[in-house]
Every structure is written in C-alpha cells, then in structure tokens.
Design goal:
This protein is of the alpha/beta class. The protein folds into two domains: 217 residues, 3-Deoxy-D-manno-octulosonic-acid transferase, N-terminal domain (Rossmann fold), CATH 3.40.50.11720; 192 residues, 3-Layer(aba) Sandwich (Rossmann fold). Helix 15 links the parallel strand 13 and strand 14. The longest helix is centred in the C-terminal third of the chain and has 19 residues. About 3% of the residues have low confidence.
C-alpha cells in the first residue's frame, strides 16, 4: 500500500479525479458515511437498520443496478443504500442516475482498505453486480459475518475457457474465493453451470435472469431534445448512431457510414466511444478520414449544429441511450473487435433493431435471442455494417417489423429484479432469525 500509493495518486491527478477518490479506495471514508443508523419502524423490524451496500464496477453495471436500487427503496424506504463503483465514469453516472443514499469508490482489494471500509459501513449485506470477484474482500466480509450476494452473475464463455486452461493452477484459489460468497443469482443456466464448476456450492447458485431487461428506457434528455430540433430544422436524414464503439472500430464504422452517405448526402453519424479515454483519438480518426467532426462537449443549448457536420462525436457520459430514440439505424460496438460486446437492449427499448458484430461473448444468450427472432443483425465488417444500414433505411416495413420484434424481446423478459429482491429479502430474514 505504501509503495503503490504515490502511483495511484499520480494517476488520479493526471485523470483529474478528486482527492477523495484515492482516500476512499484506501478505505478512508467520509465521517457521514460510517455506519449511518436509520430510524426504527421500517418494514423489516424495529431495530435500527444496517445499510445495504451495492457494488457496480462501471457504467453497464450501474445501469443494471438502477432497477434493483429503485426496488430496494420501495421495499424498505428506511434502509440506507450505499452504491460503490470502480471507474470514474461509473461514479459519475451513479450520482446522476441512481437514487442511492451514498455513492463512493470501492476499496482496493488489499486487506487493510477492505477491512476499514467494511468496519466503517458495517452493511447488513453486500450485493455485487455481475461477477467482480475480489478475494480479500470476500474473505474479510465472511469473517465479519457480512453476506455477499452476486446479483446478475455471469461468467462469459471466453473467461471460462481461460479459467479451464489454467484450472490446474488457479482452481483451488477460485474455489476458496467463491465459497466465501453467500449466494450467486445467475443470469442464465450456462452462467450457473460455470460458477458451479469454478467452485461455487451447488446450493448457493440460482438462475434468476438478467436485470438489464428490467431497466427503464431513459428520457431523451435536454441534449437529445436540442439535437432532435436541429435534425428537424436542417432536415438531416438518415440519422445513424454507433454506440459503445471501442478502439479499432472507428475505422469500420466510418467505412460503413461512407456507404450510407453516398446514397444520402444529408445523413448524420452520431459516434459514441465507449470510454472517455478514447474521445480524442476517435475524433482524430474521423478527421483524418476526411470527415467534418463536431464534438458534443463543444456545443451549448443555444448553439446550432454545423450544417456541414458529418460526424457528431458524443464525448459525454449517460446520454447515449436516449440518443438511440433519434436513430434511423444503429450499431452497438465492442463487437467488431475481440471485446465481448455491449448491451443491445438500449436501442431495442426504442424499437430500433440492433446491429452488432460477431464478438458478443458477454451477451451471447441475448444476441442469440435477437437473431433467432429476426430482431437484430450480426455483421463481421464495416462493409457488411454499411450494407445492413442501407438495407434497413431503404426498407421501412422491414425496419419497423424488426424494431417491434426487438422491443417485444426487451418487454417479455422482465422480472429478474423482483426475483432478486425476493431472495435478498429472504436472506435478510434468515439473518435476523439466526442472530
């Protein structure tokens, strides 16, 4: 800790992170966060209640946690809800979009920071979104009698293959870490089987479903409304949205856009890089390819969109999902390169059929569901993406039919939040009885 502290301090300073970030990661919490006793008379008993701590590593997990936080608030308004993140972008989105009582940074997985944080908060339960396996944290929580539940748990096929390749070396370590958790609420039966093979006890793994299906479509937002007005005023059409684009995908996306703009020279591409660290590079890639780029960060509510703009770079956090509502065709990134894919439900909320690449290991079951229902299109290159965009734009009935199928998938697979809440409620009841 002593040796690494200067490194993390320098990195945080370069990223512009507030000094509180490093303090919280070392387990030093603000005084008003340490065991805030809540009023008696809640739904779960007359004694003051320990808070519930939810951990969501970054943006995707924060969005999945939102429906669970809302459900927990409705179940027991008197209980405090703490939400931690690992990334700065996740932290920002959590503060803007999630109704948690406190938002802070997850501690480094070293014994001292973990112990300080757990002792400071003294939560009744910790809910980890998806599968952030931190061995020291799990061990210290077990020693302190604090149950840890993995909600929306998943193990991607790629991660599982890596585990099996090195199982002879890391198998016992993972088995011990997983045994320190109380419960795994898996997204799919495949995830459940992988968790059991990695060492999670048979009786501690249940299939619940994917919480991301329960997320509510976001509002278009002030910027989206402004952009919609500019699009109508300038008669821009079609609008193409490429979201969650990662390094190596800007070129293929721009090549696809070139195919579309040759047919419709008043088209507009909204390009949204997945990570803030990629904003500048993505803008440079587009400019180097000869496109006129406008950055969202340079626009104000009183500004006008440049009529000659080819690419609107969405260099902001939390606005992409609402912008899908303005799209005539979309692409969900992290899938044309070996990155595992991103959430294709966001465009589906607005009846936009998602187009995505072949690397969808993190969302394999969801991707198969869309493809089997003819509610999405899978491509393997920028050229194929461009042709798919052109096909959907030219064929209005096809676009509408696929969009309706996409939205139907997002609606009929809801329910994981209610099941998760039911299991958490039962677990808390068991704890009260044993104590």
């Amino acid at each position: 800790m002593i040796v690494l502290a200067p490194y993390y301090a320098l990195r945080g300073w370069r990223r512009g992170e507030p000094h509180e970030t490093l303090r919280q990661r070392f387990g030093i919490l603000p005084a008003d966060m340490t065991r805030m006793e809540t009023p008696a008379g809640s739904l779960t008993g007359a004694e003051p209640l320990a808070p519930i701590w939810i951990h969501a590593v970054s943006v995707g997990e924060v969005l999945a946690a939102k429906s669970l936080v809302d459900a927990l608030k409705g179940w027991d308004p008197a209980r405090q809800l703490f939400l931690s993140t690992t990334t700065e972008t996740g932290q920002r989105l959590a503060r803007e979009r999630v109704a948690a009582d406190r938002v802070f940074y997850f501690p480094f997985d070293w014994i001292v920071p973990v112990r300080w944080t757990l002792r400071g908060i003294r939560p009744a339960i910790v809910i980890v979104m998806e599968t952030e396996i931190w061995p020291n944290f799990l061990r210290e929580a077990r020693r302190m009698g604090i149950p840890v539940v993995f909600a929306n748990a998943r193990i991607s096929g790629r991660s599982f293959e890596r585990f099996r390749r090195w199982q002879f070396l890391v198998g016992p370590f993972f088995a011990q870490a997983l045994q320190d958790a109380e419960l795994f609420l898996a997204q799919t039966s495949d995830d459940a089987d992988r968790l059991r093979e990695m060492g999670a006890g048979e009786e501690r793994v249940e299939v619940i479903g994917n919480l991301k299906f329960d997320a509510e479509p976001p509002a278009v937002g002030p910027f989206g409304k402004w952009l919609e007005g500019e699009i109508l005023g300038q008669e821009r059409w079609p609008i193409l949205v490429a979201g969650s684009v990662v390094e190596g995908e800007e070129g293929p996306v721009l090549a696809a856009y070139d195919l579309a703009q040759r047919k419709w020279n008043h088209a507009l591409l909204v390009l949204a890089p997945r990570k803030p660290g990629r904003f500048d590079a993505a803008a440079e890639v587009a400019r180097a390819a000869g496109w006129n780029v406008v950055r969202r960060s340079k626009l104000t509510e009183t500004a006008q969109l440049d009529e000659n703009a080819d690419v609107l770079l969405l260099d902001s956090i939390g606005e992409l999902a609402g912008i899908y509502a303005l799209a005539d065709a979309v692409f969900v990134g992290g899938s044309l390169v070996n990155s595992g894919g991103h959430n294709i439900l966001e465009p589906a909320w607005f009846a936009r059929p998602p187009i995505f690449g072949t690397s969808m290991e993190n969302f394999r079951e969801m991707a198969d569901m869309f493809l089997d229902s003819n509610a999405g299109i899978q491509v393997n290159s920028g050229t194929m993406l461009g042709k798919a965009w052109v096909q959907l734009i030219e064929d209005g009935p096809l676009r509408k039919r696929m969009g309706q199928a996409a939205r139907a998938i997002s609606e009929r697979n809801r329910g994981a939040t209610a099941k998760t809440l039911e299991r958490i409620e039962a677990l808390l009841a068991e704890l009260r009885e044993t104590r």
